[in-house]
Structure prediction request, 460 residues.
Amino acid sequence: MASQTADTQETDVSLVARMAAGEQEALSDLYDRYRGVVFALALRVLRDRAEAEEVLTDVFLQAWRAAAAFDRARASVPGWLVMLCRSRAIDRARSRGRREAAIACLVKEAHEAHGAEGAHGAHGAQDPAAHVEAMTKRRRISAALGRLTPQQRSAIELAYYGGMSHSEIAEKLGEPLGTVKTRIRQGLMTLRDDLGRGFDAM
Amino acid sequence: MRCDDLKELIHLHAIDLLDAGEEAAIREHLDAGCPRCAAEMAAAARTVDMIPFALPEAEPSPMAKARLMAAVQQETRTSSTEPVAAHAASTPRPAWVLAAAASAAAALISGVVTGSVLMRRQDELLAQMATLERQVREARESIHLVSSPVVKVVNLIGQGNRSGQTARLFWDPTRGSWQLYTGNLPAAPSGRTYQLWVITDGGRKISAGLFSAEPDGVAAGDVVLPGDAGSAVVAGVTIEPEGGSPQPTTQPFLVGSI
Prediction:
């Protein structure tokens, strides 16, 4: 498993290098590999397929343009892509007046018990080995998030998907500001420790 | 700020929850050089990056990919634009279509293809074909306009405070078709459009159509002079309200003699 993951990392990095050299086929492959995750993230932030698709296209276009500047020491390729996606999606939610509606969905989910995470979702046009690896990664991270307290998890998700500030989160959850900060900090520390084993392999 | 203080903040920083003062304090600490804290920050950032991987993946429509590849191709084409004559003569060669076909073939050979892979490739290729057909039509028109002896070539020169701007017009008066290479023309102001005029020896101003400053620098349209109009002597471009005007409402800022 570990060597497979190292292979994926190497493939990702070489795809980006080829993109930097102008190979559109490499972009096509990278898109196929990560469109599922990037689109899912955009959807979670924007709650609208058309908007999420525009962000998806923007993200990979940005990745194409910035491929030469990608630094493997600073982030993994999928980490880089979701980072690009999150900021674009949050900006877009703000500028399109979708922010309130999107946040309302997140807050509602935060108040409900977390539903079934088992849904498969579509998988991209990946070869079977890459698909299995993606599923394993998803299960692992999902499990790690599941080990946080529900309050920690909700606060983190509001911050991440909603781009909300402390005070906004505190207000929406009806909690004191200091409590929210502590929960997010401790939740992320736990996640870091939990995922830290074999972290470099991701 | 000491390293211990920073530890409290790195995770919040990674999820963009710090205020400006706290951000600045972290910046300062790192700029002073602290590899241990820099490593902690990197680890925190990577943790946060993992959060969306817990989501079930979602499938976008094939059009999203078609739009992406078309945009990339457009960028690549624009950045390698050559002088007008060469540009008109070259046929677009979309490397990615060939590459996509090649990789679909490779997937077949390696036996790792599934039905969904082929269907997606097909959708992408179909979308690209529509774009390509349009491009071939435009390229053929370009070739005709540049090479035919009946075609008028007009260098449009910027007037007054637009004196740096130029554009080149190719017009076939017998068929009516024209192409305008818009060069360094900026986009028209919001709510307004560019309008091309043909002015006759009798002083009549005949609209040749509206256009915008195109990303790849070519606008196209057509105009045929009415039989009683006399001969065309001047071409000009004005800025008109969106939707155009029956007669120019401003002085042409680009003018050339035909």
